[in-house]
Design a protein that fits this description.
The chain contains ten helices and 13 strands. It is of the alpha/beta class and 319 residues long. The strands form three sheets. An eight-stranded mixed sheet has the order 1-4-3-2-5-6-13-12, sandwiched between helices. Strands 7-8-11 form a three-stranded antiparallel sheet. A two-stranded antiparallel sheet has the order 9-10.
């Protein structure tokens, strides 16, 4: 058996350049966090997850290791045997593959913005599980989560680990969760959520002592230089990570160290000293607020597991 590959999202560099330029020219300059992820950016993010300060990856992994059997049993109680496992933002498929013994899925569907990134991982995974049907779907589900008709049949478990739901504002998160409920087709959602915690812990996680997160943020300017033909000079900018308590989110910014002008073909933007480009939000939820969000998305029943400190939660939602 070999994996199927379906590319629904097709990158358009001109459209991406136009989007980036529009954000840079806005009164409060901003760019989407998707511009972090060129080849170097992806490697830098992997390095971030290994830093002492970045707790989400290892805390979620510990929760899954401790409670995975209970999660699998609860999910199968909703879906019945051999559910489809739909993995959002699958990447290298490693997190989802650890669920295979627990969920015993009848089909694995890996969803990421590019099938090409998934291809090698899925082919390796298929060799380890030769009897399991697998598919890779290239889809930008931040715009809309909808799978090709017939890709899954019956109830599914939609898996969204890593606290990536925090990159969506509450209205966007509600839309995505509602769409995930539709994709689950009477099944369940299994999702990792970063929780509100002391500000010093939050800010350190996004501004590590080694400076890897700073390099990750600054590398976005390299990506914009290539995409736009811009002339950002990285030494003229510094990384900032601050917790906005009113919005319950970590914000990442790049701040101009002096007055400067950035130019690209046909346009330019002047920045005053201290002026910022807003590059990412990462919303943090209280358990109570996330429960309300799940209910608003249409889920009627939930079960949640957290670490001993209550820093991170994994929710199973259904109904």
């Amino acid at each position: 058996m070999t994996p199927d590959f379906i590319q629904l999202h097709h990158g358009d560099d001109q459209a991406l350049a136009a989007e980036a330029a529009t954000g840079l020219r806005a009164p409060a300059a901003h760019v989407s966090p998707k511009f972090f992820y060129d080849a170097l950016g992806s490697r830098l993010f992997d390095a971030i997850t290994e830093t002492a300060e970045y707790y989400p990856t290892r805390t979620e992994a510990a929760i899954m290791a401790t409670h995975g059997a209970a999660m699998g049993q609860a999910a199968r109680g909703v879906t019945g045997p051999e559910p489809a496992l739909v993995d959002l933002g699958a990447g290298n498929c490693a997190k989802a593959s650890r669920l295979f013994p627990l969920l015993q899925p009848g089909r694995y569907v890996a969803v990421d913005i590019s099938v090409e990134f998934l291809r090698q991982s899925l082919q390796c995974l298929q060799r380890e599980h030769p009897q399991m049907p697998m598919a890779g779907v290239g889809l930008d589900f931040s715009a809309e989560l909808a799978l090709p008709q017939g890709l899954t049949t019956g109830p599914a478990v939609v898996f969204y680990p890593g606290s990536s739901i925090g990159n969506f504002n509450p209205a966007e998160a509600l839309r995505l969760l509602s769409q995930a409920r539709s994709v689950a087709n009477g099944g369940a959602l299994l999702i990792g959520v970063d929780l509100v915690k002391p500000v010093d812990v939050l800010e350190a996680a996004y501004d590590d002592a080694l400076g890897i997160t700073a390099a990750f943020n600054l590398n976005l300017l390299n990506h914009l230089n290539r995409l736009l033909g811009a002339d950002f000079q990285l030494r003229e900018w510094r990384h900032l990570a601050v917790f906005n308590a009113a919005e319950s989110r970590i914000e990442m910014h790049l701040e101009a160290r002096r007055s400067l002008t950035v130019r690209w073909p046909g346009a330019e933007r002047r920045f005053a000293a201290g002026e910022r480009i807003h590059t990412e939000n990462s919303y943090k939820w209280t358990p109570e607020a996330f429960e309300v969000l799940l209910r608003r998305a249409g889920f009627t029943q939930t079960e949640a597991w957290t670490d001993a400190r209550g820093w991170f939660g994994v929710w199973l939602a259904w109904g």
